[in-house]
Structures are given as C-alpha cells and as structure tokens.
Amino acid sequence: MNREQLRRTAFFFDFDGTLSAIGPDPEKVGPVPDAPQALAELAGRSGYCAVVSARPVSFLARQFGGVEPGGEADSDDGAAPSGVPELHGLYGLEFSADGGATVHTLPEAAPYREVMREAVLEATRDLPGALIEDKGLSCAVHFRNSPDLGDAADEWVEQYARAHGLKVQRGRMVVELKPPVQRDKGAVVRDALAARPELVGGWFFGDDLGDRPGFEALAERAERTPRFTAVRVAVANAEGDPLGDLADLMLGAPDEVPGLVRRLMREG
C-alpha cells in the first residue's frame, strides 16, 4: 500500500478482543500497548479511521481521545502526523469526531435511556452472579465469570426484550438489550464510505458476532465497486471464531494489531 492508497483507504476497528484483550471485568480492560498511538498516527495519514465498538463513546474517549502518536516520523519537521480516530459507540448509536469532546446520539435511540436504566436495575435483581453493564443506551449481561448462567441470562434478556419492544445483541459470553433501532457496525461502515466516495479501499478489524455486519458491508462495497479493495481482519480468540468464514486475514491476538497497522504505514 503506497502513500496515495493509504490516503484513500478507510480503517475500522472493534475494541474488545481486537484492540484489547478480553478480561473478566469490562471496566478494567484497556487497549494493548501502542494501539492508541498507532491509531492516532493512522488517523492522520489514512482516508478515514474509526473505532466502532459496543462500548459507549465515553469509555472509548478515555482510551483514544487526544492521544499523541508515536512511532516513526513522516514529515519534514520530524513529527509523526497526528489525528483523532472517530469514535462510534454502542454499535453506532452514538459517535464523536473529536475524541469524545462532543458526543452525538442517534435521535431515534435517545428516548430509551430511562428504559435501559430500568433494565439494568431489573437485571441486577433477577440475575445475581451475572455482571450487569450499564451502557446508558444499552444493558449488557455478561456471564464470562459464571458460564453456567448463560442459558438463564439469554432467556431473561429474550423475555425482557419481547416485553419492552427491545432488540437483542449476542456476543461471546454476553447478551445485550438495545433500543429497537436499525443501527449496527455495518451501517457505520456504509455511512462512512458513502460520505467519502474518493476512497478506494477499506479494512475492518474485528473478533465477534457484532463485527459481522461490518465485514459484510465492506464486501458489499467491493462487489458494487470493482476498484474498491476490502480487507477483513479477524482476531482469534480461544472462546470461538465467529468471523473465520468471512475473514481475508487472521491475526492470533489483539497485540498483533498495532504491528500490522505500523507495517501498513511504513509501506505507505
């Protein structure tokens, strides 16, 4: 990938399991070493760079907002070009283009905050032993620390979703309540590419079921536009491989992602 190709390529990154290792407490995990710096540099050199996650933007901003890039210099004054990746949280229900300083919420989703607050309270009461994550606009029920609760958690979330007109999102060792809004990572990819018709390529890095729509959106763009190159990178995880059938490239662990990003920038 030469410099011109890099400037005309979009990059999308999931967070958990892709830019960070999976941990027992979602609030205590962070990006692997060099990931924030590598993405800051990539944002300054590529056509587009975004983190597209199930996490709220507020969480992502603490990891990636305002990070100074490191690595090799690429400009006349010896400084590496700096940028800020766009942050798309809650599968695209909210986003920030300035590192979290300004957060925009999808208007259709905004009225569901009180509904989700009540869901968090009821899940905490009804599912002792599960880890209930309050994301503001969604409620995630984690059972990684208590795998035997998986069936009960799934059944509870399904029943609650039916009773309150909500959507269900599944992942590895987690099941989540979401507003009944048609928004996923594929929609984020489609919107970003539609707004930038000059782009000739896109990469999506992911590891879980929620990343499949992003992979599929890139493939759709490549099918419609022969000059567009789609690269779908799956990051392996011992808990399963829900993306292997769609992936163009496999990485063994999240800590391999920054190295690949830097290799692409060196080539560019």
Helix content: 25-40%
The run of helices and strands is HEHEHEEEHEEHEEHEHEEH
Question: Stretches where pLDDT falls below 50 for ≥5 residues?
Answer: 71-78
Kindly, what is the distance between the CA atoms of the first and last residues, rounded to a whole number of angstroms? 5 Å
**How many DSSP-defined strands?**
12
Whole-number tally of structural domains:
2
What value does the average pLDDT take? Answer: 92
Number of helices: 8
Percentage of β-strand residues: 15-25%
Q: Quick one: biggest sheet?
A: 8 strands, mixed
The whole-angstrom Rg is 18 Å
The CATH homologous superfamily of the largest domain is named: HAD superfamily/HAD-like
The secondary structure category is alpha/beta
Tertiary shape: globular
Q: What is the spatial order of strands in the main beta sheet?
A: 5-4-3-2-1-10-11-12
Catalytic activity: alpha,alpha-trehalose 6-phosphate + H2O = alpha,alpha-trehalose + phosphate
Enzyme class: hydrolase
Cofactor: Mg(2+)
GO molecular function, one term: trehalose-phosphatase activity
